[in-house]
């Protein structure tokens, strides 16, 4: 009996020892700690817990750094989009700016607020897609976008609900017709047609209802750029070949579409043309080429009466890189070229550099959309006009002409001073 009792006591003591060992191990691994061990093991316990939390926590996306671009002429930095800006467009009356982004929204900004602290905007959602291009309608009561995934045009019209204005999408998109990526879209100022151009050799002319009126084959191997003239009469394109081709979009007296006929060509570059631009009245055009030159052309010719299709006014040099775009001031006196991340502004009569914007864009992987404000163009146009009048004053021989030019120079200088005062 004594032997049995001794075995029982031994087993009981062994069980108690095992239980205490297991309980202590569990406490060290994350359970309750003994009062005396809390201070000693607190640091190790904290490290283990933080390591577990790090494993469970999802990795955070790095925040994109805000662009720190600054310039004396910078009016405002408009902030509302949460994604990359894909396109910008000023309305023809200069009152609004449209911006689209891959965040699936289009924002409409009022230019009168650009110099204020707050910049309010209207928002339009692009359902199940995002816009790569945006263009205002002539009356500013609608705009069109090209859809990245849908590969087609969507129309947004202005709506009013509870005394608040907004934009809503039309019930149906245009049918899909392009076989290659679209590089640009446009609306005629007359409102009679819509233009879309793709990177192959096709340019489509659409009715406002989404019917294809004409298909233009540019025969340029590939298209680099295409646009509608501000007057709404012409469509131009450029690409791999060293020329710019221009078509007239013809309508009948009752508004019916007739044809897209070849109007004229701008030839003179020695390499492919990257881009071109019209002046407001389409009497001037500017082009920029891979050959390192930009050219200013006179295009108000009666080509139907067999006049020369163009007259070259000036050839300037630029040392930029692709991608690049060119813009022409409303009166054709100033040329601006966007190249990768920089913008350079030239006097169209002398080729002199008037302004430079270095590192204007953060990324060089996207096509630049060169948009310059109206008052900025006005300053440079006045500067160019003053230079022209001073040159004419030197060549004038009559007192009456000299007096008139001197007065015009004074008036122009006064207007220029007023613009700078408004800016400051």
From TrEMBL:
Composition-biased stretches (Basic residues): 51-61
Biased composition (Basic and acidic residues): 32-50
InterPro entries: WBSCR13 (IPR042410), WD40/YVTN_repeat-like_dom_sf (IPR015943), WD40_repeat_dom_sf (IPR036322), WD40_rpt (IPR001680)
UniProtKB keywords: Coiled coil, Repeat, WD repeat
Start-end of each WD repeat: 78-110, 175-207, 266-298
Domain of life: Eukaryota
Ranges in a coiled coil: 395-422
Residue span of region Disordered: 32-68
Pfam family, one: WD40
Protein name as annotated: Transducin beta-like protein 2
Organism annotation: Ranitomeya imitator
């Amino acid at each position: 009996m004594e032997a049995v009792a001794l075995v029982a006591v031994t087993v009981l003591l062994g069980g108690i020892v095992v239980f205490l060992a297991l309980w202590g191990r569990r406490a060290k691994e994350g359970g309750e700690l003994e009062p005396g061990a809390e201070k000693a093991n607190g640091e190790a316990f904290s490290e283990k817990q933080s390591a577990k939390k790090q494993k469970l926590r999802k990795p955070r996306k790095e925040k994109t750094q805000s662009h720190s671009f600054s310039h004396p002429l910078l009016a405002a930095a408009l902030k509302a989009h949460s994604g990359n800006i894909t396109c910008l467009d000023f309305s023809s009356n200069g009152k609004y700016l449209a911006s689209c982004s891959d965040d699936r929204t289009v924002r409409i900004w009022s230019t009168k607020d650009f110099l204020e602290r707050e910049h309010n905007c209207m928002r339009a959602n692009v359902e199940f897609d995002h816009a790569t291009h945006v263009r205002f309608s002539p009356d500013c009561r609608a705009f069109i976008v090209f859809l990245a995934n849908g590969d087609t045009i969507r129309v947004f019209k202005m709506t009013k609900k509870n005394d608040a204005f907004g934009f809503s999408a039309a019930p149906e998109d245009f049918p899909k017709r392009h076989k290659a990526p679209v590089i640009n879209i446009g609306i005629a100022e007359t409102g009679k047609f819509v233009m879309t151009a793709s990177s192959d050799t096709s340019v489509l002319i659409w009715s406002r209802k989404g019917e294809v009126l004409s298909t233009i084959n540019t025969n340029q191997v590939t298209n680099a750029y295409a646009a509608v003239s501000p007057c709404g009469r012409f469509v131009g394109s450029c690409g791999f070949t060293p020329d710019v081709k221009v078509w007239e979009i013809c309508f009948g007296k009752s508004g019916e579409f007739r044809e897209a006929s070849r109007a004229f060509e701008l030839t003179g570059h020695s390499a492919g043309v990257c881009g071109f631009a019209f002046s407001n009245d389409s009497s001037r055009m500017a082009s920029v080429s891979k050959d390192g030159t930009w050219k200013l052309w006179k295009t108000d010719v009666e080509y139907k009466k067999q006049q020369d299709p163009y007259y070259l006014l000036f050839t300037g040099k630029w040392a930029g890189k692709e991608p690049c775009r060119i813009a022409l001031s409303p009166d054709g006196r100033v040329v601006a070229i966007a190249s990768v991340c920089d913008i350079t502004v030239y006097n169209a009569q002398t080729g002199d550099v008037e302004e430079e914007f270095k590192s204007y864009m953060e990324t060089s992987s996207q096509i630049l959309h060169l948009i310059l404000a109206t008052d900025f163009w006005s300053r440079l146009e006045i500067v160019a006009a003053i230079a022209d009048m001073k040159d004419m004053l030197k060549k004038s021989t009559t007192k009456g002409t000299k007096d008139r030019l001197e007065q015009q120079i004074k008036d122009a200088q006064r207007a220029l001073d007023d613009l700078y005062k408004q800016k400051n």
